[in-house]
Amino acid sequence: MKHAHAEIVREYGPFPGVDSVAGVTFDGTNVWFASGDRINAFDPESGEAVRSIDVAAHAGTTFDGEHLYQLAEDVIQKIDPQSGQVVKTIPSPGGGSGLAWAEGSLWVGQYRSKQILQVDPETGAVLRTINSNRFVTGVTWVEGELWHATLEDGQSELRRVDPQSGEVLEQLDMPAGKGVSGLESDGHDRFYCGGNNVGTVRAVRRPKREAATA
User: pLDDT tens across 128-159, in order?
Assistant: First the structure.
């Protein structure tokens, strides 16, 4: 397993009226994050807040290229980001924390049960279960890699895991006191991490990959 310290490259916030950050996602332009009674968007270049949507937002957040998805209690809400309207809800597996979109499915982090579930976005049916040995607080996919965040005993890690077996392939240790409560990739070299019980989002550098050789 590859093991390294996480490199925080930027911190966003705190944001007005935000006490804690839950889910985090990226729509290709703006970073969105959940803060209890709304989801908020900011420009990752300027760091400025650009808009918010009033909707229950207690845990994971993700974007499928057209709609936002937001965990709220026992449902996952599908939201039109233009109108801010909830267009569909599906049942959520209990204890949901992180949320990601990949391969036409939702991937739901399960905090207490230490699992990641692949979920049908139309019905909420569980298609696959991946077990972890740490509390799961965020989930993201990037370039075919499955990563999840942990938070346990005051320490957070970002872990790349085998999507079949759950084996940990790579781990980035966050600095002490820098808990992660939501995780998203920008699709390239940066992770966005929810700041847990502080109203911030941290950008962490994704490790470089060795170029393929002939």
Answer: 999 999 999 999 999 999 999 999 988 999 99
What is the C-alpha radius of gyration for the chain, rounded to an integer number of angstroms? 16
Decide if 214 contacts 56 (C-beta within 8 A): no
Q: Is residue 14 reached through a cis peptide bond, with omega within 30 degrees of 0 on the bond before it? A: yes
Label residue 58 exposed, middle or buried (CB < 10 Å: 0-12, 13-18, 19+): middle
pLDDT tens figures, 35-88: 999 999 999 999 999 999 999 999 999 999 999 999 998 899 999 999 999 999
Label residue 124 exposed, middle or buried (CB < 10 Å: 0-12, 13-18, 19+). middle
Give the residue from 80, 84, 87, 89 showing the smallest Cα distance to 52: 84
> How far apart (Å, rounded) are the C-alpha atoms in residues 73 and 69?
13
